[in-house]
Amino acid sequence: MTPPPRCPGRLRTAVAVLRRHIMVWRRMFLSSAVGSLVEPLIYLLAFGFGLGMLIPDVGGRSYLSFLAPGLIVSSALYAATFEGTYGTYTRLVPQRTFEGMLATPVSVAEVVIGEALYAALKGTFAGCAVLLVVSAFGLMESPAALAVPALCALCALGFGGVSVLVSGLSRSYDAFNYYFTLGITPVFMFSGIFFPLDRLPSWVRTAAWFNPVTHATDAMRALCYGALNLSILGDIAWLLVFAILPLPPAIRLIRRRLMP
Amino acid sequence: MSAVIARDLSKRFGTLEAVRSVSFDVHTGECFGLLGPNGAGKTTTLSMIRCTLRPSGGQLKVLGMDTHTRAREIRFRLGVVPQGDTLDPDLSVRQNLEVYAGYFGLGRGEARARGAELLAFMALEEKAAVRIEQLSGGQRRRLALARALISDPRMLILDEPTTGLDPQARHHLWQRLRTLRGRGTTMILCTHDMHEAEALCDRLAIFDHGRILDIGSPAELLARHAGAEVLEIPEAGRAERELAQLLTSLPADVRHERHGELFVAFSPRPGGFAAPLIERLREHGLGLSVRRTTLEDVFLILTGRELRE
Ligand SMILES: Nc1ncnc2c1ncn2[C@@H]1O[C@H](COP(=O)(O)OP(=O)(O)OP(=O)(O)O)[C@@H](O)[C@H]1O
Ligand SMILES: [Mg+2]
Fold first, then answer.
1. The domain spanning residue B170 has which CATH number?
2. pLDDT, tens digit, 9 for 90 and up, residues B264-279
């Protein structure tokens, strides 16, 4: 007689959920890869070369080289955010994918962590695509740039988690308009990606300190330029907190949705 | 041993009491049916059993485990065909089975083998590579059952598994369910199809407004509520005088009801409606019928004939 099978642990079921997402992603990999490469190229050409011609050097380097690390961050953040909003909501509501999962040992915690990790994975992939493009332009100055994927993952996990949380609150796709215009666009704009923050009024700088994208961009510049110092540790600590913090409330919200 | 023990089980959604203090047992190895009008609380009860809804009150044990504390283990032992469709539209038919096997902790090789076996069991081999949106309704339900079986569950929860199927597909599915019951799988089946309930269920609970009105085997329910034979006269208004005569001559143990034009009478014994009387009514051109009672009669007697919202 075979021994009775044991209920799989949470780690095992979380991995199974993530594997499901990757299986789906593989099908649309090409379109997703082309998008991740072409979009940053357009930004780089438009902002870097176009705008760069009007702008003198920023802090002793060309505008293109000032901009490149921020483009890696923004790519990661947007890819993770799209997956955690439109992607997650589609699986939560119209497709009832999560309901299907809950007829198995998978519980809501693994569903949500699986979503956040998938968003993080997509963000990391998008960030790495930009890394490739900017490297091809010779904009990476240091071997420390090898750590860029890890930083992308951290930043994307945070934004993935927040997006899944927002999906848990949303009653329709329209709600994401608010999140993008009132949440994502401001943190993207006032993060030091496009212009240095140090000449802005002090209250703006204070507000920017609470912006995760500021820390991600600062840390990304440090890696890309090889300008490593202690402040990068502060940025990474900040991002670590940001990556973990949204998950418990996201789990609570999605649980309330799925198991009223 | 009982597979499910529910005592004073309740579920509130805000102010709505969807399930009101129901108690029942499901015996190991039996097929237990839940019948009841729309909104009676059947799906809500199933959801509490399969640990996707938390009871608002009462006790609930499934396979000897408390649903509060051991939800994951319970879900590991159950196979679920939910009401409506929760198949994964991003995956193919085969992937639906294999990914699901992964959720139960099955390894890749085992998942593939189980998947192939169940595709054959459900006659879906030709559709293995197809996406869900290209399946017909019946094929979807078959896949839903195949998916529910991937972990070789001890108990199946079936919420209207054959709704919308053609007779062939329905009989195919019933045959599969009988095979499973023959192997000792416990089943809880929720259905609006009285044939299905008679064909598959050992015992039934009839729900209405969140309560259980009665529980018993189909034969017990028939005997308790409907008797052996029923006389129906759909257009009784056309022969009121003859009908009044009929009423005086009916045996004392025959119960009768009037619903507008419809007249119904139930006899606890076969042959309760004497032939001469019936013939006289027939001569008046009434389209009447005398037939064996069915679960549908029990259902209508217990839950009434009014339409639900
Ligand atoms: N998630 C929910 N939130 C609020 N009310 C709910 C929820 N789920 C069910 N209800 C309500 O609870 C009641 C019972 O619903 P349930 O789905 O259990 O009925 P049912 O017996 O399965 O009906 P049907 O035969 O139509 O499937 C209904 O009035 C329904 O509107
Ligand atoms: Mg239902």
1. 3.40.50.300
2. 999 998 888 877 777 8
pLDDT (0 to 100) of residue A4: 58
Task: Check which CATH number belongs to the domain holding B239 and give it.
Answer: 3.30.70.790
Q: What is the 3-state secondary structure (H, E, C) of chain B?
A: CEEEEEEEEEEEECCEEEEEEEEEEEECCCEEEEECCCCCCHHHHHHHHCCCCCCCEEEEEECCEECCCCHHHHHHHEEEECCCCCCCCCCEHHHHHHHHHHHCCCCHHHHHHHHHHHHHHCCCHHHCCCEHHHCCHHHHHHHHHHHHCCCCCCEEEEECCCCCCCHHHHHHHHHHHHHHHHCCCEEEEECCCHHHHHHHCCEEEEEECCEEEEEECHHHHHHHHHCCEEEEECCHHHHHHHHHHHHHHCCCCCEEEEECCEEEEEECCCCCCCHHHHHHHHHCCCCCEEEECCHHHHHHHHHCCCCCC
CB contact under 8 A, A95 and B88: yes
B45 CA distance to ligand 1 centroid (A)?
9
User: Counting ligands in written order, which one lies closest to the CA of residue B12?
Assistant: 1
Instruction: Tally the domains of chain B.
Output: 3
Domain identity same for B26 and B47: yes
Residue nearest to atom 27 of ligand 1 (CA): B38
CA A197 – ligand 1 centroid, Å: 55
> Domain coordinates of chain A in residue numbers?
53-258
Residue B308 lies in a domain: no
- Answer whether B102 sits within 8 Å of A16, measured CB to CB: yes
Contacts of B87 in chain A (CB under 8 A): 100
Do B272 and B244 share a structural domain?
yes
For A231-245, what is the mean pLDDT? Answer: 96
- Residues in chain B where the model's pLDDT stays below 50: none
> What residue of B is the nearest CA neighbor of A255?
B52
pLDDT tens figures, A38-92: 888 888 888 877 888 888 888 888 888 999 999 999 999 999 999 999 999 999 9
Q: To test ligand 1's pocket by mutation, which of B11, B17, B19, B43 has the most ligand atoms within 8 angstroms of CB?
A: B43
Domain presence at residue B24 = yes
B73/B161 same-domain check = yes
Quote the domain boundaries for residue B197: 1-77+156-216
Domain stop point among B153, B175, B197: B153
Tell me, yes or no, whether B1 and B142 share the same domain: no
Indicate whether B8 and B73 sit together in one domain.
Answer: yes
The pTM of the full predicted model, rounded to 2 decimals, is 0.93
What radius of gyration do chain B's Cα atoms show? 23
Average pLDDT over residues A117-140: 93
Q: Does B1 share its domain with B73? A: yes
On whether any CB of chain B is under 8 Å from the CB of A99, the answer is yes
B208 and B73 in a single domain? The answer is yes
| Nearest-CA distance A95 → chain B (Å) | 7
Examine residue B221 and state whether it is found in any structural domain, yes or no: no
- Flag whether B178 is in a domain: yes
